[in-house]
Amino acid sequence: MRFLTKHRLSCIVNDGFLKLFFKGWLCIIGMLPLALRAQGTAFVQPAARLITRFHFTQFTGGIILVQARLDNIGDTLNFILDTGCGGISLDSATVEEFHIPTRKSDHTIRGIAGMKLVDFAYNHTLRLPGLNVDSLNFHVNDYDLLSSVYGVKIDGIIGFSFLRHYIIEINYDSLQIGIYTPGNFKYPRGGHMLYPTFTSLAMPDAVLTDEKQIASRYIFDTGAGLCLLLSEDFVKDSSVIKSSRKLLATQAEGLGGKKPMQLTVLKHFQLGPYKFRQVPTLIFDDDFNVTNYPVTGGLVGNDILRRFNVVLNYPEQSIFIKPNSHFADIFDYSYTGLGIYQTGKNTFVMDIIPDSPGAKAGFKLGDQIVAIDNNINSNIQVFKYMLQSTGANLKVVVLRDGTLHTLSLKVRNILRG
Predict the structure, then answer these.
(1) Would residue 143 be called left, alpha or beta, if left means φ above 0 and alpha means ψ between -120 and 50 degrees?
(2) Are the beta carbons of 247 and 254 closer than 8 angstroms?
(3) pLDDT of amino acid 142
(4) 239 contacts 212 by C-beta, under 8 angstroms
(5) β-pair partners for 141
(6) Which of 235, 216, 288 has the alpha carbon at shortest distance from 1?
(7) Distances from the Cα of 251 to the Cαs of 245, 287, 388, in angstroms?
(8) Domains, the chain, ordered by start
(9) Core vs surface per residue 54-86: b (16+ CB within 10 A) or e
(10) Each residue of 5-45: pLDDT tens digit?
């Protein structure tokens, strides 16, 4: 969720230039065959050509993980495909490990929990399966927190600097990405075309309905593993949510670290003609204006977007969405108040919201989760899915100060308040 300055194209012409332009244009028209001019032939864009197709891995919240190589480095690196990123980036630990040269810059990036000056690694080649993209300038950031959230090393983020060059087809049914040259693309039957407002980010119009109905723009963010994220200013100014509603305390991770948030469920969210009911929604104090309010009200994340097969056509500033087999999937209404992170091969409880189900169950900071309902696993993604068992009574075995403890955790259903 980082923003770059909006680029504007300005054109200055004078009378002399216009005369030369039209004189030259008339000469060109004069050279065309008479029959061609009579037919009113228009330029036909060449057909988009498939360059490559490859699989991706999907994490909780719909996050897309793509494997690629950098330059001639032999190791395969892990990148998140993120339409909420205005550039392309590398993890600082990855840069250090492979001795990638960097240079200081005056470029600032913003996230939900902070903003910072970043260094750059210039003129590198990203090697995806079947496609090499050269002359890319990566900004450098620390993704250690993201790595611990997903349980795998996150080496970078692929954003606008890459997306703007291609037509990208994301199929969440087959977990495949197709990359095409810009051109005349044959879209699947059905579906709907969005024409977002564009900077380096796409911001389609959508309608939010709760106590009242509000039309606004929302950042189209495949890098956010959630449904909706709204700025507190937008919620207050629009009065879309009744001020007396009780909100649950929680937090989310992003650029700059962890950020306190509030959790609720909104009645309806409509993107194009597609409407979703009872949508889990996070609200936060947007100190660094990453949502660019009032231009947008917030962002729509990949827990909604993964319910469509998507074609990102940034060269034509359009996005095509078509409901897929996940369209009717139940939303995650679970609430435990626990923040779990992976260090090495072990999963630890690092955050506990006061008065939450996790706090009431007796969890302590630093508890190592050994098993949930007799499922012993070293994969944090497995534990996260199990903790999303809304309404379940889970037996969680933790290792604390060298001793095993069994805790009874009642997973709260946020639909029931």
Answers:
(1) alpha
(2) no
(3) 95
(4) yes
(5) 91
(6) 288
(7) 18, 15, 16
(8) 50-180 (2.40.70.10), 193-310 (2.40.70.10), 334-416 (2.30.42.10)
(9) bebeebbbbbbebebbbeeeeeebbbbbbbbbb
(10) 333 333 333 333 333 333 333 333 333 443 443 455 567 78
